[in-house]
What we know:
This protein is α+β, with helices and mostly antiparallel strands. The two termini are about 45 Å apart. The protein contains 20 helices and 20 strands.
Amino acid sequence: MLEFDLDRMLFTIPSKDHSPEKVVEILSEHPEVSFVSLVGIDIGGHDTDEKIPVKLFVSDIEKVLKNGVQTDGSSVALPKIAALNNAKVDLIPDLDCNWYVDYNLNNISGKTDLPVGTLRIPAYLVHNDEFSCGARSTLHDSLEYFKSELMKELKAHPYVFKYIAGADSAEDIEKLIITSATELEFWVKTPDDKGDREQLFTAQVLKEQYWKRTYGEVRTALEDTLLMLDRYGFEVEMGHKEVGGVKAKMGNSGHYDHVMEQLEIDWKYADALQAADNENQVKYVVRDIFTMHGLDVTFMAKPFDGVAGSGEHTHLGLAAKLKNGKVISLFAPEDMKKHFMSPLGFGALMGVLKNYEVINPFVSSSNDAFSRLKPGYEAPVCIVTSLGRSINEPSRNRTVLVGLIRDPHNPLSTRFELRAPNPKSDTYFVLAASYMAILDGIKAVLAAEKDPEELEKSISKKYGEEDFYLEKDREYRTENDVFVDFTEEERTRLFGKAPATVWENLTAFDRYPEKLAVITAGGVIKDIVIDSYREQILSQWKTELHDRLIPQTMDFIRNCKKKHTDDDFSDYDIKNWLEIDKIRHELGKTSISEKSLLTRAKDALDDGDYDEASSLQLQIQKRVADLTELYTVYKKNLL
């Protein structure tokens, strides 16, 4: 229970109130806000959080809002941009978005009897007064370029308005509205608890958790979170249990212990840049409130092996505000009962599918992300879409990469759901790359002046068929279960080979230069930003693999010990143990004549042989899975 007066607290300062005079007036009315923080997002997706006392901020507010504050860029993730001898980076406030107050729920002011708050002002990172850098700046520039280019295309190809309801020409459009939303999945647990893989897997198979009633601290924390989020104006749509988790039990203290549950929270869409900002604030509120209730929160993509990971489905939309005040979807067709989408919708979807190889490095950028992207866990591994078996039967195919969301009774809801992102994906970069790919597809469709019937045929093409835009030796649409109705070989042949490691994913920037040119068109995602991002993600991958995952794997190998005794064993136990010990040595025991897989992987990383390190990482994962399964069987047979 939130035991303070929410009605007295400041949560949001909207963009219309960002004049210096208005900000000073608002802050003077809310003494619970003690600090101001300018929030920049670096290449690694980290946000800055410096504490400027409100009194100092107010005394110099005009200068700060115009010129920002300077920081040391070499201390944040801006590789190849800001170095020790070239580190000047300014945080320039964004006056055109919502500003949110972040409350420290564990620090109640004696003066106000309210939590101490920090006004977080989203900001752009500017290096050496020359160019914007960082994830948030990149998204802003991409969206501005998208809008400018699309308006030019709409004016040059007026035919398309025959297939869009509500507008007769580009002259009817006052402005374009790029909308997005994310769905946040996460796990909560009592501190120090470790999930029992078999219990979690069994509960998932039996569907014991999804949308079930929450209890105890989880219920209270979830309800408090939803109430708090609404105070910020996020317009929460739903909070519920997800597929993962096990039933908590009441302890002697009268509280539920051994909590291990997966939850999801959804809120209303917004302008794409605002949507990414909103997600950041939502995560802070979620973590703070659940922590206040004694629960750990993790936004990892795959915190527990063998059970469903956490996704962050990302919705992509495009609308136009007309000069008559009406808002229409540009993805929706003129007749919802006749076509799936407008030509713009088809072009957008085709752009994402054709260029996804260079979007994916922004979507899946960690070892954890690839642990989630495995067949059978409702996480997509193939570049393929689903439209629906018919116009009247909306798609609910959860095995595809990107699905079409449409409601015949609500054309404005027409959008795409990108299912691969996870809570650790950098939404700023994901949206920037996605909308640049969308623009490429739309330009191709408009240049060819294709109608919806022709475009439905294009996106439904078979392997080997030529197309004006999509690749010949690929398929892009299926209404079937990707994991059940296709073999692994068929998936690879039809939908392309999915990368299996962070390194494989990063190499797409080199393997597909023509697709990289799509997302860097117009110089909005600068070459230096791509190079910086690549360096940052490569550093994260090799450091985590070398210094965390390999040592953790070695610890796991050491814990797979001989359990049977000399007077209590069977020939089955001996057989299993011999195979277990063989795998243990293969993985972790180096001799003079032969190095273990773990040693070889570390050596490859030290030598900069990332192809070899990536290959060895996959071999290690396979043998660890074999060892885990065999050791479980071995232990179960012991009395």
